[in-house]
Amino acid sequence: MSARDTARQGASAAEVEEGLRTTYARRLFKPFAKAVASYDLVEPGDRIAVCISGGKDSFLMAKLFQELKRHNKFPFELVFLVMDPGYSASDRALIEQTAAVLNIPVTVFETDIFENVFAVEKSPCYLCARMRRGHLYAKAKALGCNKIALGHHYDDVIETILMGMLYAGQIQTMLPRLKSANFEGMELIRPLYLVREKDVIAWKNAYGLRFLQCACKFTEANAGGCGGSKRQRVKELIRELKREDPQIEQNIFKSVENVNLAAVMAYKDKKGVRHRFDEEE
Questions:
Q1: What residues have CB less than 8 Å from 184, skipping those under 6 apart?
Q2: Domain CATH for 151
Q3: 181: CB partners within 8 A, 6+ apart
Q4: Is residue 40 part of a domain?
Q5: Domain range enclosing 168
Q6: Cβ neighbours of residue 277 closer than 8 Å, sequence gap 6 or more
Q7: Smallest Cα–Cα separation from 194: which of 3, 12, 28?
Q8: Helix %, strand %, coil % for the chain, to 5?
Q9: Three-class DSSP category at 149
Q10: What is the pLDDT tens value at each position of the chain, 281 positions in all?
Q11: How far is Cα 165 from Cα 163, in angstroms, rounded to an integer?
């Protein structure tokens, strides 16, 4: 960490905002703005629900959206949405306090997701994620939004690619923009798509900001951690490979942009229909 990243506890919202325009403009705001422009994530007339989970990524995304709104090249609206799936009182208080410190006007709504998922033995994390997504879409639509924004970053994308290959036997990625199959007229966007996790961590440390690490009751009860051991193992694998080839992360990211359908055994089209390599045209 450089001297410019030295932690300063108790930074104000104004200091954080100035940092996004200066010190962290190249590493955070520029890749954020590039993703927004490259993938058409924000369009005139949009009303976007910026979904804040309480972690570093979603809070950074909220601040970057505020900065984008400050430029206001065309009209769009923001709603900063916090879903409480059953947080402890201390975790809920931390989210609200951090939002106040960062001058983010959050709208909080409650669900009973943790209670419903806690007793599930098979794939509780998958079910929790699906339920969270559904509740966010429903609340956002009720508030007049046409998009929800999630805080997945570049490292999440490449880890997901490898996890799919190694543990699920499939090739797919997190898309920067995705139409909802269940909520008509709604889309999911990922504006941190080109932002690196190490830069988010540097930003967090520089301003002494406190965020939720893991609030999941299931992983707490099972002495695990958010994301699980598989994602952590993939993180370690990528670090190991990067020591041999500094381009490895970029290569993983680009691999799903350079798929040659003529050289794969099979693939599924948009309708889910499977096609084999030896099908007649």
A1: none
A2: 3.40.50.620
A3: none
A4: yes
A5: 8-261
A6: 262, 264, 265, 266
A7: 28
A8: 50, 10, 40
A9: strand
A10: 443 444 344 689 999 999 999 999 999 999 999 999 999 999 999 999 999 999 999 999 999 999 999 988 899 999 999 998 888 899 899 999 999 999 999 999 988 777 666 666 565 566 677 788 888 999 999 999 999 999 999 999 999 999 999 999 999 999 999 999 999 999 999 999 999 999 999 999 999 998 987 655 554 444 444 555 888 999 999 999 999 999 999 999 999 999 998 899 999 998 889 999 988 76
A11: 5
What three-state secondary structure class fits 274?
strand
- Torsions phi, psi for 247 (to 5 deg): -90, 0
The answer to whether the CB of 213 falls within 8 A of the CB of 226 is yes
**Residue 272 within any structural domain of the chain:** no
Helix, coil or strand: residue 278: coil
Q: Is residue 1 part of a domain?
A: no
pTM of structure: 0.89
> What total of structural domains would you count in the chain?
1
What are the CA-CA distances from residue 87 to residues 48, 62, 138, 216 (Å)? 24, 20, 20, 8
Tokens of 216: 């999941």
User: Which amino acid appears at position 116 of this protein?
Assistant: N
Q: Is 82 within a domain?
A: yes
